Amino acid sequence: MFDDQYSTTVWLYIPASMPYSRTGGTISGITQSISDAMYDAYERRLLSEVKAGRIPTHIAVIMDGNRRFAHQLGLDTQEGYLKGREKLEKLMEWCVELGIKVITVYAFSTENLMNRPREEVDRLMRLFEENFRKAADDPRVHEHKVRIRALGQQNLLPSEVQDAIRYAEERTKGYDKHFYNIAVAYGGREEIVSAIRKIADDVLGNKVKRDDITEQLISSYLYTKDLPDPDLIIRTSGEERISNFLLWQVAYSELYFCDVYWPGFRKIDLLRAIRSFQMRHRKYGA
Q1: Which entry of 4, 66, 112, 212 is annotated as an active-site residue?
Q2: Cβ–Cβ < 8 Å for 176, 145
Q3: So where are the chain's domains?
């Protein structure tokens, strides 16, 4: 098989659904190994093509498949989340390199908070606490002026996680070159309901008139009030759903679904998603 029609050069096809090992491993379902040299050449070519086109200002990622990735490899579920965290750090690096200004990632929903086993939730909360503090102290964050923010119902999170969020937000609050939003204890419908309640309160308090309520006003009451809506939504794991993520903001976003589980997501998968975005003619309406 060959790479898709958009590439000007024919390369050996690297399926998005197969995690590529840069350490000498093999890819299930492929009869021959792909050398690092071939992979790197393909990546460089794709990067050059993407950089020559229109780069999205804001991408949002539904990071799905951590647990399935772990189970597929016979690992503990927690190991899947740790691998997912490593990939999130890589995503930030790739987006900075490409000049993408805003990244929003769906880390943990309100449904997950209520429905996942308590032991798993507790372990994830400890991981979130560690992740926010680690990100806040990461030299790359300060070098590239990345502002970190959490989106969601922080009051539902353990106090230790809330403290870590405040630490990260405080350490990066003065930055405006890049924005790194982590949606945790987040639900899109809840975000809209919360905005409506705040607007209702302001109408009753005579701060807002009924006729002042517009799309722009509603947007100004959302978690993402001072950010552009996402240009591109990427979901991993092969699922093709939005899953209550940024429901208001994605009205005109381009959607891209790929088969790879989140910890196996590669730079070429991001580049392919952006190249797909570049090949589309964005329409606002029907």
Answers
A1: 112
A2: yes
A3: 56-272
